Amino acid sequence: MLQSNKPIRLTLNRLYFGRSTAAIRFQYTLMVIDLVIVLFFLAGPYLRDRPSYLVMDYGIAAWMALELIAQRSASNSTRRWIMRPMTWIDVFVLCTLLLPDLLFNFAFVRVMRIWAVVQRPIFTLMLKRLHLIDKVDVVKAAINLFVFLFMLTGFVYTFFFYRQPGIEGFVDALYFTVATVTTTGFGDITLPGPLGKLTSVVAMIIGISLFVRLAQAVVRPFKVTFSCPDCGLNRHDTDAVHCKACGRLLNIPDEGI
Q1: What is the dotted CATH code of the domain comprising 132-220?
Q2: CA-to-CA distance for 239 and 254, rounded, in angstroms?
Q3: CA 156, CA 253: separation in Å to the nearest integer?
Q4: pLDDT of the residue at 62
């Protein structure tokens, strides 16, 4: 059985992590599908009352279940695949899709699927082709901030503003989130009760941290990710010849830049 599954695993591994033309096309297709899924998640609160919502919901659930199986098959280690944070996120998002009525209050977690786009090898390759590889840390920090803003907005909207008509509730949730994360604190919209206060505290602490991380990524010189064989230092200058930590002679490949 293991021998019969080996060709399938090798093929999937090449498609998911390879650099051939077929692999790039496959990864690009997956990235486009990921973006469409994220757009569906963002529009979810406004599509929920339509008859076609459940059809699209279960269709995406079937696709995510199929991709989880494919990712497991492509992985060289089951333990490593299980320990990936994105695996747990995908499983929880899949549960919210399979049980939309029961877990609707946690639908805001679905926006974390944006991270699936960033983790695709094709994402870094596209930045290289656009000559933006030196901005990869900035892009990832901006995406992390964006995900947190929409995660928090979804939480605030679900638990505090969901009963408001139209898009007013979501706009109020977004307005509160941005005002709190930036510590502007206008005070015209506040969350009631202990849960509201705790939400505001978490928003300010994590929001400031992500803003600082983004600022650091903007002003910090770009460094190549390349592990030193001796000391294991992973970050080096793009033109580094020797490791700054141990002095080991480095041979950083061009594709690492």
Answers
A1: 1.10.287.70
A2: 10
A3: 46
A4: 92
By CB neighbour count within 10 A (0-12 exposed, 13-18 middle, 19+ buried), where does 66 fall?
exposed
Comparing C-alpha atoms, which of 90, 97, 1, 84 is closest to residue 48? Answer: 97
CA distance 100 to 27: 28
Q: What is the DSSP string of the chain?
A: -HHHHHHHHHHHHHHHH--SHHHHHHHHHHHHHHHHHHHHHHHHHHHTTSTTHHHHHHHHHHHHHHHHHHHHHH-S-HHHHHH-HHHHHHHHHHHHHHSTTTTGGGGGGGGGGHHHHHHSHHHHHHHHHTT-GGGHHHHHHHHHHHHHHHHHHHHHIIIIITTSSTTHHHHHHHHHHHHHHTT----SS---HHHHHHHHHHHHHHHHHHHHHHHHHHHSPPEEE---TTT---EEETT-SB-TTT--B----GGG-
Match 């990921």 to its residue by tokens: 34
The sign one gets for the Cα dihedral 141, 143, 149, 155 is negative
Domain boundaries, the chain: 1-122, 132-220, 224-257
| pLDDT mean for each 10 residues of the chain (257 residues) | 63 80 85 85 74 85 89 82 85 86 77 79 76 75 85 83 67 85 79 85 86 78 73 71 73 59
